[in-house]
Structure formats: structure tokens, C-alpha cells
Amino acid sequence: MNAKISFRNVSKSYPLKNGTFTALDEVSLDIADREFVTVVGPSGCGKSTLMGMAAGLVEPTSGETLVNGEPVTGPGPERGVIFQQYALFPWLTVRKNVEFGLRLTDLSAPEVRSRAARAIDLVGLTDFADVLPKALSGGMKQRCAIARAYAVDPQVLLMDEPFGALDALTRVQLQDQLLDTWSKDQRTVMFITHDVDEAVYLASRVIVMAARPGRLFKIIDVDLAYPRTEDIRLSPEFGRIRNEVWHSVYHQASAVPTA
Ligand code: ADP
């Protein structure tokens, strides 16, 4: 497999008063170039820790993470990160928020403006480009955060429960939009979610993790064609895979008391 992201025996432990707490235990996983992988598992099983390693925000206690075959030593422009909390600057308009990340690159000012405008258009926010985040709904704020990541044109998107705070309809719309963009740009996507339906709908593989210690539990292939549609969501095969993922997660959740 042509791995875009490679976790090689990564572990993370934190010191406690008496000993250490293992947040992540010896995880090895390859994510292929242009693959869409979702990660599910009970709270505290290390999903964010694992993604943080790919983002360069969490340093493993042992093992290493490679992106494009190179060890990750910190954040980089080829990896865009999107969190559940929109992390927008409240005093900047949508356009200025999206341009912000681009100003850290060596692009010319006109190029910054046109890239930002394209990303804003892609997420359907053109009419709102000059308003402040407080005037936006939750879904629109998240679109803005997504536009900011898209604008930099990263090869890898790392998304940590990006749609977790949104209502069901907005969520479905953003899922379809994300898949649409992914099918055109063919980025590599690693996407954490609590929502089993969302995990199956988006991914070609669902990574199920277990807690205490955080570890890989099971990898479930999603053999459903793209583009994914409402019909696929209602198909028996989708239901079968969703049940398999749900049982794997539920098995963990019932075996361990979680927060
Ligand atoms: P998840 O994303 O699956 O909910 P996390 O990766 O956020 O899990 O956390 C995994 C475990 O590591 C949790 O039990 C969490 O409390 C613990 N943890 C995360 N960061 C720290 C930290 N800085 N210090 C101590 N424990 C931490």
C-alpha cells in the first residue's frame, strides 16, 4: 500500500502520581494516499491522541508517525486540521478568517484573495463572506472552518468530530459536501466521529478503537461504492456494516466504564 500516513507502534503515556497512564498503546496503522478513513470508539480511547500525532500536535512517547514517508516533527501546511470547536477569530470576517491561514504562506496578496474566495464559494458561504462569525449559524461557522482548511489546499485533512455539534440535517449536508469535495480533490482524510452512521457513510475503512489502554480494536472495510447517496444509506448492505461497527463499539463501551 502506498501509505500517506503511517503510525508505527505509536504509544502515548502520561505520568501519574503513582506510575503512568497509557492513553495509546502500540498502534500501527497505514492510511493510503487518497483514502477516506473514519475512527470510532468510546470516549477516552485515544482517537484525538492518534490524530494529534498525525497533526504534529502530540508527540508519541514511543514509535513514530510518518506522512509522505517523512517523520512528523510538528504541524505542516500539507496537513489541515479541523476541530469540533470552530476556532474562528470572532473579530475577523469569514473572508479574513479564511485568508488568515494563507497569509502564513508565501503566496502573493491577490493569490491569497482568490484562493480564499474559491474556498468560501466551495462551502457555499460567498454571500456571507463579509460578516463576522457571530452572525453565522453553527453549520455556517463549521463551513467557514472547513473553507479555511481547504484554502491552504492540504494533501491530508485531519478532522476531529467536525460535525459533532451540528443538527442532523446540517450534518448530512456537510457530509455530502465533504464527500463531493473529496471525490474531486482526492485528499487523504482521517475523520473522527462518535456517530456510527456517519463513520460508515463517509469511509472506505472504519477504524474501531478500544479504551484502557487506547488501542486498535478492529478495522472494518466499507465495500460500498462512491458516490454515496441516500439510497446507499438505506441499503441492506449499509445496515449490515453499520451493525458490525456498532457491535464493535458497543462491545467496548459495555466492557469499560467510560466518561
Ligand atoms: P478520545 O479522543 O478517544 O476521546 P483522547 O485521545 O482525547 O481520547 O484521550 C485519551 C486518553 O488520554 C483519555 O483518557 C484522556 O483523559 C487522556 N489524556 C489526554 N490528554 C492528556 C493529558 N495531557 N494528560 C493526561 N491525560 C491525558
Describe the structure.
By secondary structure, the chain is α/β, with parallel strands linked by helices. The chain has two domains: 1-78 and 158-259, 3-Layer(aba) Sandwich (Rossmann fold); 88-153, no CATH class. Helix content is 37%, strand content 27%. The chain contains eight helices and ten strands. It has helices at 47-55, 94-103, 109-122, 138-151, 168-185, 196-202, 230-233, 236-255, and strands at 3-16, 19-32, 36-40, 62-67, 70-71, 79-83, 156-160, 188-192, 205-210, 215-221. β1 (3-16) and β2 (19-32) form a beta hairpin. α2 packs across α3, α2 packs parallel to α4 and α6 crosses α8. The radius of gyration is 18 Å and the shape is globular. 41% of the residues are buried. The mean pLDDT is 92. It binds adenosine-5'-diphosphate. Adenosine-5'-diphosphate (ADP) binds at residues 14, 21, 23, 41, 43-49, 214.
Low-confidence stretches: none
- CATH class label of the largest domain: Alpha Beta
Average residue pLDDT: 92
What about the largest sheet? 6 strands, mixed
Strand fraction: 25-35%
Order of helical and strand elements:
EEEHEEEHHHEHEHEEHH
In terms of topology, how is this protein built?
Elements: E1 3-16, E2 19-32, E3 36-40, H1 47-55, E4 62-67, E5 70-71, E6 79-83, H2 94-103, H3 109-122, H4 138-151, E7 156-160, H5 168-185, E8 188-192, H6 196-202, E9 205-210, E10 215-221, H7 230-233, H8 236-255
Parallel strand pairs: 3-8, 3-9, 6-7, 7-8
Antiparallel strand pairs: 1-2, 1-4, 4-5, 9-10
Helix pairs in contact: 2-3, 2-4, 3-4, 6-8
The protein binds adenosine-5'-diphosphate (ADP).
